[in-house]
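Thread: Newbie trying to understand structure tokens

Hi all, I'm a second-year student working on a class project, and my supervisor (Dr. K.) asked me to get a predicted structure for one chain before our next meeting. I've only ever worked with sequences, so writing a 3D structure as a token string is new to me. If someone could post the tokens and maybe explain what I'm looking at, I'd be very grateful. Here's the chain:
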Amino acid sequence: MPINTALYVENFSEALLQLDSEGYIVYANPAITRLTGFPEAELLNRRLSVFYANPDDSYKVDYDLDQARQNGKMLTEGWRLRKDGTRFWAQVHLSSLSNPGGDIYGYSCLILDLSSKKEGEMELRKREERYRLMVDRVQEYSIFMLDPQGNILSWNDGARRITGYHAQEIIGKHFSIFYTGNDIQEDKPARELDTAIMEGKYKEEGWRIRKDGFVFWADVVLTPLFNDRNKLIGFSKVTRDLTERKENEEHLRASEERYRMFVEQVRDYAIFMMDEKGQIATWNDGARRIKGYEAGEIIGKYFSIFYTEEDILDGKPARELQIAQATGKYEEEGWRIRKDGSRFWALVVITAVLNAAGNLVGYSKVTRDLTERKASERALRESFERYRTLAGELKIINSELSYANQELEQFTSIVSHDLQEPLRTTKSFLQIIEKKLATASPEELGTYLKKANLATDRMRELIHNLLHYSRLAKEDINEERVEVRELFTQALQNLKGVIDDRNVQYSMATEVEYVEGDRVQLVQLIQNLVSNAIKFTRADPPRVQLRCSEENGAVKMSVTDNGIGIAEEDYTSVFEIFRRLNTRYAGTGIGLSICKKIVERHHGRIWPESVPGEGTTFHFTLNDASID
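---
Reply by user tm_fold:
Sure, no problem. This is what the structure looks like when written as tokens:
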């Protein structure tokens, strides 16, 4: 029958703990309560030092854990505390716990109560000897014993390595031998012993002296030792050499001081530090010169004081800190405010400052006044804009003159051909009527009159569309902000009769909410394209799609049908005035010409894409900066 390990541990008669890698208790069996009086739940997440005679002696726990980590196990004995404050002599077995990869994740700790066992002085001496041998071998710490007066009683190898004294040179001497002359004059060694007795421990960092006379920076812990009758029998003294760390700190401090002095003397840049909330913590002379504030006026204030009212209302200062924290740095050029209220153009760099653990501790902010450069750039830009405007106006004038000449030539051709065609038709039918007036029946004469009237109507429509086309070039554009869906809806509403009659299926989709342009002309543009799409569609039902999107900074609209399509070689000629590619469908041939004129007046371009027999899409742009 297999052993139930958990049940076995719970019923184990000796106190058993499990520690994590830092010495914190993660499990305690019921026997620990019987031994120490601490409930199991009260011990969880507390360090093993909770049982020590002085719970603050974490270094003892650190040492024991370090030995168990290096050797796989550690055995120690000493006085330990129960919850009610009474002491018991304990033997503690520490064993390291490791995973299959060899990484230590914790320790098992067995605590045995040896208080009631009468092992005699021999066993006690053996334990003391083992402890002495263990301490003697410690290299990283100077560990030795003092008598109640402060004379040295023992000496380990770590003490020899750190101070330079061998045991025979130092045992019996007063521990003040390691102190500087000033410390001895101020009676510091004696005060340390008194403090250790009163408070249970004395701990500090300070300068101590080696045998060769050189000083070293020491971390010192002095602990009083009492026997079982609470009588002082001496002190333990643990010293660690932290000279290297101290030197690194001094180098860092000196470097920071040099940097601070350098920054404070910089005049061309405003350089200052802020805390993690954006409050100003330092102020250099360049900041005073550029922004006008003295250090006493500005330190402690939020850095938004330099921003315009619009930027503050927009939450810009806080947003800049968020970007700096997320990406490490925020950089921009923009307007800032001096103390006197005047504005200056600033190059700003905000850098997040992190501590060694990677946590945000503040920001550095560097600002340079570029107002003069900004003014020079503005003057150069204005000069260039004037030149470009003049050149653009001349180009437009030349283009308009060229276009006017082309239209004049085209108009001459129309007058000589397209407008004469309905006149010839009307005259022909009137001549037939004149010849047959005496012999033809009224029904026959009515047919000829009807055809003559149709030719007259076509001429009137041609003249009306031609006049409308001509007016487009002369009328001013009424620029306004128009909702795109409103344009689509109005154009479809104007064609409601033919849409209902042909049972047209249509759809609208737009990624753009508003467009700048002449509302009337834009509605006519979309209406002409939709009407054209319906006219040239044989499919049942006809389908028309209206779309609007933004492309390269310009608004792009499209009207798609499922009609007869356009051959690629006719893509350009479809926009010629009175040009009709397919005479089977009614029309004057001027609708697409009007569309092209409206698009050009809105600084755009129009073009078709088509698959013959499957349908056509007319695309056009508005306010297209890519058009020269």
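A couple of things are worth pointing out once you decode it. The chain has five domains: 5-117, 128-241, 265-369, 374-416, 476-622. Residues 476-622 form a domain with the Heat Shock Protein 90 fold (CATH 3.30.565.10). Feel free to ask follow-ups in this thread.
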